[in-house]
Amino acid sequence: MEVDGSMLYDPVADKQVPAVVLRMPRHRAAWFGLVLDTHTRVCRLVGTDLVAAERGPAWALDLAARSAGHVDAARPSTVNRVTSSRRLADLLRATRAAAAITLGIG
Fold first, then answer.
1. Per-residue DSSP letters for 19-76?
2. Confidence class of residue 84 from pLDDT cuts 50, 70 and 90?
3. 103 burial level (CB within 10 Å; 0-12, 13-18, 19+)
């Protein structure tokens, strides 16, 4: 990781700021992209107050890894959509599990 002297626009600060350059092998970029995508999905599923909008960087990391020749045989070629009913079922299952732990049931 380095600060190489280049600048980029930061929409939060609304000005140009020094860029932080992170170099990594293609497999690590793919893994990190998957972590960011999963983080975003979990935060949205749970409904946290945390702003989880990391799908753009996740997509860019995955694209960069594939452009560098990374092929992940374990990853499916199509993304499975999470429907509203599936989200509700997962949330209900998690709520029941948390209640069981809290109450000492099962």
1. EEE----HHHHHHHHHHHHHHHHHHHHHT-SS----HHHHHHHHHHHHHTT---TTS-
2. confident
3. exposed
Nearest to 38 by CA among 19, 57, 65: 57
Give the model's pLDDT for residue 7: 94
Who's near 39: CB < 8 A, 6+ residues apart?
52, 54
The letter for the amino acid at 82 is: V
Each domain of the chain, given as residue ranges in start order, spans 26-103
SS (H, E, C) 3-23: EEEEEEEECCCCEEEEEEECC
What is the distance of C-alpha 47 from the center of its chain?
15
36's tokens: 């960011």
Integer Rg of the chain from CA: 19
